[in-house]
Each structure stands twice: as structure tokens, then as C-alpha cells.
Design brief:
This protein is α+β, with helices and mostly antiparallel strands. The protein is about 45% helix and about 20% strand. It has helices at about 5-40, 90-145, 150-180, 190-210, 320-325, 365-380; strands spanning about 45-55, 55-60, 65-70, 75, 80-85, 210-215, 220, 230, 235-240, 245-255, 265-270, 275-285, 310-320, 335-340. A six-stranded antiparallel barrel has the order 1-10-13-12-11-14. A four-stranded antiparallel sheet has the order 2-9-7-4, with no helix packed on it. A four-stranded antiparallel sheet has the order 6-5-3-8, with no helix packed on it. α2 (about 90-145) packs antiparallel against α3 (about 150-180) and α4 (about 190-210) packs across α6.
Length: about 375
Amino acid sequence: MNAATPAAARGAARRRGLLALLLIVLIAGAIWGTHWFLYARHFENTDDAYAVSDMVQITSEVAGTVVAVHVDNTQSVQQGQALVDLDPADAELAMASAEASLADAVRKVRGTLALADQYRATIVERKTALARAQADYDRRKSLVEQGAVSAEELAHARDTLASLRASLDATHEQLNATLAQTQGTTIATHPLVLSAASAVRNAALALRRTHLVAPIAGVVAKRTVQIGQRISPGEPLMAVVPLSDMWVDANFKEVQLQNMRVGQPVTLHADLYGSDVVYHGRLAGMAAGSGSAFALLPAQNASGNWIKIVQRVPVRITLDPKEIAEHPLRIGLSMNVSVDVRDTSGPVVATQVRAVPLPVRAGDDADDARIQKRIDEIIRANSGN
């Protein structure tokens, strides 16, 4: 009787332990179920997400030899900062030739305008000579009948009259031809001058393109250009990555996309900083297809041994610029993403256009004004005004 008591006691203790464990499991399950029903089911999470940014390729628009490289990988640059210089000798010679051609065109147009005035003066002179010849012919014609003038002299007067009339007609045609080239224009607006001015702008543009500057602020990456290298137009030299304008591409499973809408709030953590740093963003849009659909070799599932694989669709998430400035990211860093899908009022497909315009080379307006000023100076210097 005493021997059975410890075994019974152990059995009762075991049952109480199992009941306690079951109770703990039930309570934990109830807590988890309540948490899932009230909170967790409204969020879609993935750790298949990476930081992304533009990679602005720096290429030359003209051929040339590199004479200076002002930056290196990992260095920060500001918009308009010098990156690479090409040998400007050929471009400077082309610029000088274009300016000389513009001056020559101005002088030619100036001569054409002066030629029109010369033809007008010649017309006045030949009209006077024609009137005098007409009077001489009429006088001799009346004297022929009286025998005071020979028929030969009258014939000479008639020939002279015809010659002067022909010369006057020819001068009129020359004046018309000259006016056809200059009518309705000035020296500055003449087609020859405008064409030469365009050649000057083209040469100035080629000269300016020998000095490559950063089109946007960022960090230099993938620099391959070296001093002394002969480069061709369009050849990649380096890239500038604007780290202040980054986003995240998160790859969600297709079964997670049902309630995702544009504009939903997103919280993110970067493996670089851990869970202590929280980024906040917005769902900007979903890709037009899964990642495998845009692969170089898309999967062919028409074979008999097909196995279904859950597809993932890239989802773009914009980030708060202030948070990026406080905790900078780098391209390719792993991110943990959680999308709040409670608000489903937004569109499924993004319709907005990109808010940030493409970068523009700094100083274009100032350079254009300087080139136009130089063209005006050449025209004034050669127009005789």
C-alpha cells in the first residue's frame, strides 16, 4: 500500500503538469489568435526586400582623350561638380573655325545688301541714259526726213536705245534676284547668318562637352575611366548614385497581394542598423508581372513534370527622405518590410507619374547666354554698324 502511493503521486503530478502545459498552450494560442485576428492579419511581411536607387551613368557625348579625372569611387559629389576633362584642343579649333565662318557669312550678307543698293543706283543711272537715248532717237528720226541725219546714224541711235533698254531690264532682274536673297531679313536674321550661328552653337556645345560634370548629387561608383584613355561617345565612364533618393523593392508572394493597395503605410528595418532603426514609407506600386516573367529565360511550364512554385511580385516602396538622411542606405542592402493592408481604398495599379524630374546639366542657361552674347558680338563687329 505504501509502495503504490509514490507512483500514484507521481502520476497525479504528471497529469497536473500536462494539464498546466495544455492550459499554457491554450492560453498562448488564444493570445496569438487574438493578436492575429486583431492586428497581425492586417499586415503582410517579407524579408525578401532590398534597397534600390537610380544609377546615373556618366558618359561622354563626344570622342576625346581623358586629360583629368577629378573623382574616385566612394566619393560624394554635388550637382555640377567636375568629374572628367577631355582634351579640348580639337573642339577649340572647331569653335574658332565656326566663329570665322559666322563672320564671313555676315560680311557676305552685308555685301548682298549693299549690292541691292548698287543695283538701284544703276537703274536710276540707266533710266536717265535711256531717256536721253530715246530723245536722241526721236530727234534724229524727225531729221532723217529732212536729210539732216543719215539713215545709218539713225540706226546707231536705235541700237543704242535697244541696248540701254536691255541693260535696264537686266539690272532690274539682278535687283530682283538680290532682293529674293535678302527681302524680309536683316543681317542677323538672314538664313546664311542663322546657319553659321547654329554652327557656332554646335561647336560651343562640343567644347562644353569636353568638361563632364555631375548631373546630380550622389556618390561615385563603378568608375572605370583612366587618364590618357581614348573614349568614344556613349562609353560608360562611371556612375553617380543619389543616395538621398532611394526606395525599396520588396518581393511578396502572390498570395500576399490580395489586399495590397497603392498608398498603404509601410514600416521597414534594415539589417545594417537592426531593429532599433525604423523606416516609414508608402507602397508606391506593384510590378506588371512576377520576377520570373521578366527573366532572361522565362520558365516554360508546358512539360509534363511541372511543379507549381509560388511566384513573387516586386512591390516598390518609397521612403521618407528625412529618415534616409539620418540613416543612409546603400544599394542592395537587405530590408525587412511590413505593409499595413487595413486601408484598401487606394488603387491597385499606380497611375501617378514620377515626381522627381530627370537631372539636368547645371549651368546650361548661363552657357547658352554666353554663347548668344558671343554670336551677337561677331555679328555687330562684321555688320558695319
